[in-house]
Amino acid sequence: SGLPMRNADLPAPKLSFEFFPPRTEALEQQLWACIKRLEPLAPRFVSVTYGAGGSTQARTHAIVSRIARETGLVPAAHLTCVGATRVDVDAVARRYWEAGIRHIVALRGDPPPGSAYEPHPGGYPYAVDLVAGLKMVADFEISVAAYPEVHPAASSPMADLENLKRKLDAGATRAITQYFFETSTYLRFLDLCLAAGITAPIVPGIMPVSNFAQAVKFSDMCGASVPAWMGRLFEGTDDDPETRRMVGMVIAAEQVRLLQANGVDEFHFYTLNRPDLTYAIAHVLGVRARVAA
Ligand code: FAD
Asked: Which of 18, 28, 149, 254 is catalytic?
């Protein structure tokens, strides 16, 4: 028993890749190299995040528009409603529509570290309100966030699940999950979604880890738990980046293959603007580069 060595009989899964707007010229070069490297894998879409509090508005817009102009990829723009008026958010959305961007990943966003979230008086209070507002601006395709380990500020797991259902009912067509390392957590969450009457795809967010210490810090902030077995696998690799990367590759490859064996055929990768692990994991999933004709 165990996993088949190859999932050769399965159709190749549908992929999407997430990037973030870099802060420097050098990192911007790295981003475009990453996009170019992943482009032949023909993902369904690639998404570009929106910095905390909307801080990267201009950069997100510039990158998304350039992807639309200069690549064969379909871009999606992340958009948050924290700290902004409805008028401002609608204006950003309208500019996307005018630039030919048809897909928005609609999020609430987070308050500055240390403070509790408060809706902007003239803004969209929560992501569900943002989804409804975006649909009034134009007929965008909309993705929303889901939390297999429950959003840290949710009053209860059930309330969080109902919030997800409301976001989908308001016009979103898919949810992308926060990353998780325990595959059973996601599979249980899928069951809960089905039981709650959610029929939209709940696409697992995959975070290939090559810097464990950084991943631990980041996971703490976003409420993703890091299992003890993962710490043991990375043990002693702090000064050995090459081994660390290979360990990260093994962990992520096992995770996606287990998901695939459980019928999951869509994956969203948090690339962190680095293509190599994502490329290799996609390969393991059966995705091959398409050569341009
Ligand atoms: P919501 O769906 O609005 O939920 C937020 C919280 O409020 C939940 O706990 C929910 O249960 C609760 N809630 C909902 N409605 C109510 C209500 N009426 N009263 C009380 N509580 C309520 N952040 C960025 O800044 N930029 C990005 O580009 C970005 N991209 C992301 C992509 C993905 C796939 C994911 C999973 C997250 C992303 N985030 C991003 C992080 C996100 O902004 C935070 O996780 C944020 O805290 C919640 O956003 P949300 O859209 O899930 O919010």
From this structure: 18
Question: Does 39 qualify as catalytic in the annotation?
Answer: no
Separation in Å, CA 73 to CA 6, 35, 41, 48, 268? 28, 9, 10, 12, 15
Mutate to test the pocket of ligand 1, among 59, 78, 108, 156 (most ligand atoms within 8 A of CB): 108
The residue whose CA is least distant from atom 46 of ligand 1 is 109
pTM, entire model: 0.96
Total H helices, total E strands in the chain: 10, 9
Pocket flag, ligand 1, residue 60 (CB < 6 Å): no
Q: What are the tens digits of pLDDT across the range 229-250?
A: 999 999 999 999 999 999 999 9
Q: Is residue 269 within a helix (H) or strand (E), and if so which, with residue range?
A: strand 266-270
Q: 108 CB under 6 A from ligand 1?
A: yes
Q: Is the ipTM of this complex over 0.90?
A: yes
CB–CB of 278/43 below 8 Å?
no
Q: Token digits for 85?
A: 């008026």
How many whole angstroms separate alpha carbon 4 and alpha carbon 243? 25
Alpha-carbon radius of gyration of the chain: 19
